[in-house]
Amino acid sequence: MRKIILVLIFSFFVSCKFYKENVMFEIKNNSNSVLDSLIIQPNYSNFISLKSGETKKYIVNMNKVSKGDGAYVLQYKINDERKSYAFGYFTNGIPFDDYFIVTIEKEKVKFTSIDK
Questions:
Q1: Which residues constitute the domain of residue 45?
Q2: Which PROSITE patterns match (predicted)?
Q3: pLDDT tens per residue across span 14-30
Q4: How many structural domains comprise the chain?
């Protein structure tokens, strides 16, 4: 009986604490234009730009996210037009996925979750 209680307590602490705190995004600009003021929310302060054909890594630290449910939101400006796309999901501030490839083309955006 003691072993069962210890296993339950250990499982509780492991499930609450040992999750990935960073989500990595590999962002590829396959459009023919510069992407400006690009941000992925729930990060609100790390704006980047990408030239045509450029790829950059982008990290969102989930420790700074309120402990609610939500989705990521990609926002950027292309040719003076603001674009916004919601994707993915996290619950209680804990991400389900830890790596995304985001491919931005002229007329569409593709989001791919990769298990790392």
A1: 20-113
A2: PROKAR_LIPOPROTEIN (PS51257)
A3: 555 455 788 999 999 99
A4: 1
